[in-house]
Amino acid sequence: MSQADAFVVQLPDDERPTKWYNIQADLPEPLPPPKDPATGPSRIKALPDLLVGECLRQENSTQRWIDIPPEIQDLYRQAGRPRPLIRARRLEERLGTPAHLYYKTEFYSPTGSHKVNTALAQAWYAKQEGYERLTTETGAGQWGTALAYAASLVGLKTTVFWVRAVHDWKTQRRQFMRLYGATVHASPSPETATGRALLEKDPHHPGSLGIAVSEGLEDAGRDEKAIYCLGSVLNHVLLHQTVIGLETQRQFEQIGEYPDLMVSSLGGGSNFGGFTLPFFADALRGKAIRFLAAQSAAAPNLQGEYRYDFADHAELTPMLKMYTLGHRTEMKPVRGDGLRYHGCSPILSLLRHRGLIDTIAYPTDERHVFERARMFVQAEGFLPAPESAYSIACAMDEALKAKESGERSVIAFNVSGHGFMDMEGYADVLGL
Questions:
Q1: Number of Cβ within a 10 Å radius of residue 255
Q2: What is the pLDDT of residue 376?
Q3: How do 100-105 and 85-87 pair as beta strands?
Q4: Closest CA to 312 of 298, 299, 324
Q5: If phi over 0 gives left and psi between -120 and 50 gives alpha, with beta otherwise, what is residue 42?
Q6: Which residues contact 41 (CB under 8 A, 6 or more apart)?
Q7: What is the tens place of the pLDDT at every residue in 129-164?
Q8: 31, 36, 33: which is closest to 318 by C-alpha?
Q9: What domains are defined for the chain?
Q10: What angle do CA 352, 353, 359 make, to 5 degrees?
Q11: Measured in whole angstroms, how far is the alpha carbon of residue 183 from the centre of its chain?
Q12: What pairing do the DSSP bridges indicate for beta strands 319-324 and 305-310?
């Protein structure tokens, strides 16, 4: 059996990434900077009080490679990095496709998702800078769990504002966060002025990531020993996540293949960006490769407008140049609720604006997505998170197109998290 026929592609520990890749060094044009709104206090001047200092420096860096501190490398090892790349041969056979399908196994993580890659970095930097508590938002719950885990390892407290629509049905994940020592609030919550104002209008408000971001920022802003950590969108978050794509590049080199198409789900962009950005460096140098973002029709932000907008509901953040649906747009809750965010990462938005990213938005009933996930589970054995089911569905749809055309393409997709705490969502959609 040739290397390309291998089921599992492992990366030796001595080949793991020791630097993060910063695509800002290679972008076709400078990234549009954040800006303040026409009225009100400067959000940009407030950033040093809101974000971890080292993360803010990385946010603005144009240095191509940024060293991963040895202590964070040790945390990555403990969290199971490097992670395998798997050839989905059984799925290929069931689809009858000539395409080669490969998936990255980010579900091999202590908390079950890729989110630990930036959580460990942000928590470690926060500890070094003397903070005692982290505040954050979470949508599907994966980011809140990852930050609670990372904070626990380095000896910090965590407060998580969790989108109410998901908080109320994922009881086991809520308990998991609390097991790590986190304080968890359904968002909107009575803990902040932002939350109280929304609850006064609607005591059963389902919440959104934009609202939860506002609450996390407000909470950190009133406590000098606390600092806010963001789970997606910003440049430093995608930077930390590039360990995924860097490992994947080396694994493809190991087997002598290269992806023609890279697929991943996209909400704010950390999963998609971490998986694809190292490959964008090749694409910008002329390599033929397609990038396809799988989204929910509840929040197809890459089909929105490319303009400046706030990253949160209460307008506490600077305005970012990004594809957006509008920071106060009401969006229908879905089971893959980690994809329900109004805006997309400025870096990915610029690449989309330059025509380098395609997107597809799947219906909000999620039937097609979860049916595809069921076939993946039965062929490959791994249960994906609802958000990762979008990535899987998109890759399978593209593999079936290859079957129709007879094209022998290589499709890579990222399974960014497991679904062990999401079975109620599967049961609801599939009638299990």
A1: 17
A2: 98
A3: antiparallel
A4: 324
A5: beta
A6: none
A7: 999 999 999 999 999 999 999 999 999 999 999 999
A8: 36
A9: 3-19+70-112+238-430 (3.40.50.1100), 21-67+115-228 (3.40.50.1100)
A10: 35
A11: 22
A12: antiparallel
CB 51 within 8 A of CB 125: no
Separation between Cα atoms, residue 40 and residue 51, nearest integer Å: 20
301: burial class by Cβ within 10 Å (0-12, 13-18, 19+)? buried
What is the SS3 assignment for 287? coil
To which residue do tokens 């399978």 refer? 396
Q: What is the DSSP letter of 339?
A: G
d(CA 157, CA 135): 9
Going by C-beta distance under 8 Å and a sequence separation of 6 or more, which residues neighbour residue 40?
Answer: 315
CA 168 vs CA 205, 240, 250, 251, 305: distances in Å:
12, 30, 41, 40, 32
Instruction: Spell out a b/e string for 167-178, using b for 16 or more CB atoms within 10 Å of the CB, else e.
Output: bebbeebbebbe
Q: How confident is the model at residue 1 (pLDDT cuts 50, 70, 90)?
A: very low
Task: Measure the CA angle with vertex 264, ends 263 and 265; round to 5°.
Answer: 140
Collect all residues with Cβ–Cβ distance below 8 Å to 220 and sequence separation of at least 6: 50, 135, 226, 227, 228
DSSP string, 12-68: -GGGS-SEEE-GGGT-SSPPPPPB--SSSS-HHHHHHHHB-HHHHHHHH---SEEEP
Q: Enter the tokens of residue 73.
A: 């490398």
Read off the pTM: 0.96
Find the length of the chain.
Answer: 432
Give residue for tokens 């069931």. 94
Token pair belonging to 1: 């059996």
Give the residue from 423, 416, 427 showing the smallest Cα distance to 117.
416
Q: What is the average per-residue pLDDT within 188-192?
A: 97
pLDDT tens, residue by residue, 339-396? 999 999 999 999 999 999 999 999 999 999 999 999 999 999 999 999 999 999 999 9
247 by Cβ neighbours in 10 Å (0-12 / 13-18 / 19+) ranks as: buried
User: Do residues 413 and 262 lie in contact, with contact meaning Cβ atoms separated by under 8 Å?
Assistant: yes
The per-residue pLDDT for range 258-284, each reduced to its tens digit, is: 999 999 999 999 999 999 999 999 999
